[in-house]
Amino acid sequence: MISIQSVSHQYAPGQVLKFADWQVDNGEQWLLLGQSGSGKTTLLHILTGLLNPTGGNIKINGTSLYQLSSKKLDEFRGQHIGIIFQKPHLIKSLNITENLLLAQSFAGLPTSKKRIEEVLDSLAMLAKKNAYPQELSQGQLQRVTIARAVLNKPALLIADEPTSSLDDGNAAAVLALLKEQSELNRATLVVATHDKRVKDAFTLTYHLT
Amino acid sequence: MSPFNISWKNLWSKPLNAALNILLIAFGTGILTVLLLASTQIEDKLEKNSKDIDLVVGAKGSPLQLILSSIYYIDFPTGNIPMKEAKALMRNPFVKRAVPLALGDNYNGVRIVGTDSNYISLYGLKIQSGRFWQADLEATIGANVAKAQNLKVGDTFLGGHGLTEMKDEHKEHAYQVVGILTPQHNVTDNLILTNISSVWKMHGDEGEEHPDQNNNNATDHDKDREFTSLLIQYRSPMAVAMFPQMVNQTTTMQAASPAQESTRLFSLIGIGVDTLQWFALLIMLIAAVSVFVNLYNSLKERAYDLAIMRTLGASKSKLFFIIILEGLILTLIGTFIGIALGHGILQWIGSYQESSQARINGILFIKEEFYLLAAGLLIGIIAAIIPAVQAYRSNISKILAKN
Predict the structure, then answer these.
(1) Is residue A205 within 8 Å of residue A30, measured between CB atoms?
(2) Which of chain B's residues have a Cβ under 8 Å away from the Cβ of A45?
(3) Which of A208, B14, B96, B134 has a C-alpha 20 to 30 A away from that of B376?
(4) Does the complex come out with an ipTM higher than 0.95?
(5) First to last CA, chain A
(6) Predicted local distance difference test score (pLDDT) of residue B356
């Protein structure tokens, strides 16, 4: 599923981050652990095709990411990778349904309101489908971003510190949703965090030093 | 969600900013539309009305005034010319056709023109109903006059002294409408035509006396009757050099060329048109800057939005397109509103214009307006191009990591 080989990234002259080789199989759920500044976000950006590393090779589902053209890479990301960020971010000028339609059309997939309602329903957000982002709470917004990430049934679901801005109750709920949704949509899950509350939920971990 | 939808919704999430930009562009385009339409129509009218007239001979005074009064029927005549001298000119070998005019009366602001049958062939007049004037006090009226004054063949009306107001009505003599002209789309649509002796009759041929404010048709005696002016068509181009000089130097009259005077008039108006044009262009420039600032500022706020769009699979060129589209939407809406506004304003001005001869029409569309539309498109693209390039080039990894 994911394979990274001798990947390193030079983010400033003389400052190079090196990442240990990593092999992830289909349907596995991994925790990516590391302190702030250890390169978590850098690795996630490299994995999702947002940042071309200065060295090494990354394969997702057998596709060598950085050998794709810029346009193809964007499309690949839209279709096969779902990303959830630390702070839930939706387009303010669009309502929830429109935000999700955006995820379908940007990925180059046919739009389907039925699929959107199905995903919103599985996250108990169907009642808010016509609401605008500013009308929702942080916890609700995070659930919509999860909906957006799994909408296109991606092979890989990546979450960057999804719980760090949430209280205990919401953090546990979001984590449960992530695991549930990745199983429901048969996606491989990688959660990057330094949040101790999350650790016990995973058996597979990749440590960054 | 099409790119258009995304651009549209984003613009209207800040309605005041969008409205301000549209307003500026509409204002600039509106002024340009008014200028374009008005100057086209005025030029067209000037040309159409003086088409076959090479020279106007009248009393000494301002040549422009002579042209305005005898061809466009706007200003007052410069005075009168003795019939004897005029008749001599009409027989001159350079002259192919000479049409005498006797002005001085009106009916509800419509000028009554005393003339002869040469006038018909000079303007190529045609009859819609009835016939042309023949005897004294018979009148053939223009198509617009019939409509506006509600006159039919057989109706009678009283002329008033002067050119604009109905005062000192000539109560003793009533004109009778004997014919109505087909619309000629020139000044004759707004005139009442009769023979010259009818006009003389009004002014003292039968002993009627009244004060002469405008110094046009003075009280005449049988022996020295007067015309207001002569419209002259040359026999050969050679006359251009000789004839006007001859008139100006050897007679008490003056000769004025419609072509020259129209050009002079238009160059006088032109200064005002130029100034307004620069003013409108300045507004368009401000509008372009305003659209640019609007897009540029919103781009800063939307950097994260755009980065998210990229993570969802949108390509760089799609983001570029979305930003360009926002510029285009603003300027196109503004341009359309501006053009509509220009037509509306012109129609409104036209409906308040006193002199029906020079009335401007707001419902006329000309192909130059497409240039305005193209200019609007261009401004939209130019204003949006820098923000769009920035969106295209933005480093999403950096933007996402910062948050």
Answers:
(1) yes
(2) 397, 400-401
(3) B14
(4) no
(5) 23
(6) 58
Tell me which chain A residue has its CA closest to the CA of residue B305. A91
pLDDT tier for residue A95 given thresholds of 50, 70 and 90: very high
Give the residue from B256, B282, B298 where a domain finishes: B256
Q: Does B223 reside within a domain?
A: yes
Name chain A contacts of B310, Cβ cutoff 8 Å: 50, 74
Of residues B13, B34, B3, B18, the one with CA closest to residue B334: B18
Let me know: does B163 contact B104? Beta carbons within 8 Å: yes
Q: Which stretches of chain B drop beneath a pLDDT of 50?
A: 206-222
Q: pLDDT value at position B212?
A: 43
State which of B194, B224, B256 marks the end of a domain: B256
Same structural domain for residues B80 and B195? Answer: yes
Pairing of strands A55-60, A63-64: antiparallel
| Dist. CA B335–CA B351, nearest whole Å | 24
Q: Does any domain span residue B193?
A: yes
Are B250 and B330 in a shared domain? Answer: no
Please report the pLDDT score of residue B186 as a whole number.
85
B393 touches chain A (CB under 8 A): no
Can you tell me the distance from the alpha carbon of A11 to that of A16, in angstroms, rounded to the nearest whole number? 6
Question: Could you tell me the residue range of the domain that residue B148 belongs to?
Answer: 55-256
Any domain includes B187: yes
Question: For position B339, what pLDDT does the model report?
Answer: 95
pLDDT digits (tens, 9 = 90+) for B25-77: 999 999 999 988 888 888 887 778 887 899 999 999 999 999 989 998 888 89
b (16+ CB within 10 A) / e for A79-112: bbbbbbbbebbbbebbbbbbbbbbbbbbbebeee
Q: Is A186 exposed, middle or buried (0-12, 13-18, 19+ CB in 10 A)?
A: exposed
Which pLDDT score, from 0 to 100, does residue B358 have?
60
Per-residue pLDDT, B224? 67
Indicate whether B263 belongs to any domain: no
pLDDT at A168: 86
Total domain count for chain B?
Answer: 2
Residue given tokens 């009533």 in the structure block: B174
Structure-token match 């991606």, residue found: A154
Nearest-neighbour CA in chain A from B392: distance (Å): 12
Residue of B nearest to A44 (CA): B397
Range A97-112 average pLDDT: 93
DSSP codes joined into one string, A71-113: HHHHHHHHHHEEEE-SS----TTS-HHHHHHHHHHHTT----H
B139 shares a domain with B249: yes
At residue B210, the pLDDT reads 41
B292 and B238 in a single domain? The answer is no
Same domain, B65 and B185: yes
Pair (B96, B27) in one structural domain: no
Exposed (0-12), middle (13-18) or buried (19+): which is A32, by Cβ within 10 Å? buried
Would you list which residues of chain A are within 8 Å, Cβ to Cβ, of chain B? 41-42, 45, 48, 50-51, 70-71, 74-75, 77-79, 83, 85-87, 89-94, 98, 101-103, 105-108, 111, 148
B179 and B298 together in one domain: no
Asked if residue B192 and residue B312 are part of one domain, the reply reads no
Side-chain-side CA neighbours of A74 within 13 Å: the count stands at 24
Whether B310 sits inside 8 A of A50 (CB atoms) is yes
Structure tokens at A176: 């449960």
Q: Fill in the DSSP letter of residue A66.
A: G
Q: What average pLDDT does the segment A44-67 reach?
A: 92
